[in-house]
Fold these 2 entries.
Entry 1:
Amino acid sequence: MADEVVLLDFWPSMFGMRVRIALAEKGIKYEYKDEDLRNKSPLLLEMNPIHKKIPVLIHNGKPMCESLIIVQYIDEVWKDRCPLLPIDPYQRAHSRFWADFVDKKVTEVLLKMGTTKGEEKEAGKKEFFEIFMILEGELGDKPYFGGETFGFVDLSLIPYYSWFYAIETLGELNIEAECPKIVAWAKRCLQKETVAKTLPDQKKVYEYVEQMRKRFGNG
Amino acid sequence: MADEVVLLDFWASMFGMRVRIALAEKGIKYEYKEQDVFNKGPQLLQTNPIHKKVPVLIHNGKPVCESLIIVQYIDEVWKDKSPLLPSDPYQRAHAKFWADFVDKKVYEVSKRVWTSTKGEEREAAKKDYFETFKILEGELGDKPYFGGETFGFVDLSLIPFYSWFYAIETFGEFNVEAECPKIIAWAKRCLHKEIVAKTLQDEKKVYEFVGQLRKLQGLLE
């Protein structure tokens, strides 16, 4: 029986992009369903009743939620090709730690920057750079966080790059000036076809963010 | 060469208790090093420079941080006995989802209750606390454990919070069993396991500790 794979997602979601990259890396055919997050479909609410969020991967009718959990599932089921996590348990724990760091810290600081003004926003910007400096420290001189090849941590972080233009323009900051290694790493990742095809255009993301800001009165 | 396993921990930490349960389940000998979380030592700061938190597992000199990541590491390295996660990928993803839910929700709602002041703030915190546990009761259903017939990853991630129930009930002025009887029944079932019973901290001791924390945060009563 052929696998039936459906992805409930929303095109600018960094979390959704992680799953799309993983599916592309493994060469898995799937049906993509873009959700209207202001009007969530009954399928999404049924498949993720707890958090009601995308992405949700539905594999042969069974739903999986939370992007990093989905990516690990994909890696375990389609284990015959393109491993996303290392085999060694210590390296796996190390990768999970840094993907978890990205999840906890990067999203939170972006939210802070996007929803605050004045002193709080300036504090948010300072924190943003502190977090990316830490990431640059972890990257070191390696081409990828995974070492010689693109891996779990790279996958968890690279989607944020599609938001950089929006962050820089609205935040009035220059990421490349402060974190050149991260931008160099991102451009290296974009040379991979799976990443280049998955990440949406930065200007398109910026327009989406602008619309959100106007709608919620932050503009 | 024998494995050298060290655990940097704090007696009252729910997160640390998860790791202690996992190590006990696997029968792993280790050196326990109690940390002063108000005055963090150099070894903790060196092995967990990013978050500076317990627990930290140091296996043959290499540190692993974040309790659920540590437990998965333990399960993968000592894979020949007492599996903590299911072997089926879908069941594994399901277990990870619920352990992640516990991580994201239970600690936060618990903290809001014991740091709240009387009145609206506390009532709102209590409401969210019960909603979170009702969701967990829904997931448990009629199963003896979240893992099904046997104690597993989700049970391990949640049971340490039971040693904080007395403190939360007393400061929050409510009764968990009245609202969530299934959770209490499940917790008492888990406590029949010697490993869990030996690991969970005395609830009165935790209550005194939470009292100290509240004083430090300027919350009287």
Entry 2:
Amino acid sequence: MVKFLKANKAVVLLQGRFAGHKAVIVRQFDEGNRERPYGHCLVAGLAKYPKKVIRKDSAKKTAKKSRVKAFIKVVNYSHIMPTRYSLDVDLKDVVTADVLQSRDKKVTAAKETKARFEDRFKAGKNRWFFSKLRF
Amino acid sequence: MAAGKKTKKTHESINNRLQLVMKSGKFTLGYKTVLRTLRNSKGKLIIISNNCPPLRKSEIEYYAMLAKVGVHHYSGNNNDLGTACGKYFRVSCLSVIDPGDSDIIKTLPGDH
């Protein structure tokens, strides 16, 4: 009886272009709203995972391999699989509901999310989140 | 371990409790609504039949683990569970939202 679909929960998308990709819930709308009369949430996820970095790589190569590409999406609860993991990245100010209104806003928000994700990846935390789910 | 063996007596009592829930409480039947009740934390007990497909069973168990809700594996297949609910169709999984007069929530979760 514990609510588990909360902000900072790591989830896996099940449908759509990003099926199989990991994302983190930024904001949830349990009751839905007028355009979406179902429970849904705003997620930010990894469109492109960082590649595997080995010790042999030069600094330039490591930098190139550690790049990620982020996406921002509104997704129905029934199209995500919640996990027991969470990702404590503060994205509330960057990813808001009105970001998805226009393309430029979305692109700038995605770039900011990408920067924050990359910082987190380079700090070596949340390994599970940044590893590709094989299926 | 005696936990695996289900005696006839406890099985009947589960059926009785379920009957009481059907009469006096709130419940939903079916996989989609079970997940929905788990997501919005309304479900208090989940009952899964024994011939539920293993992937679906583990998915429901995982959701229940996240929501800290008890799962009971009913000793009987979906036909039996449907009959126990007093319905004329099969029920593979059900979620008890409000037990009503029944004590099914207090007596059941303990076994997983």
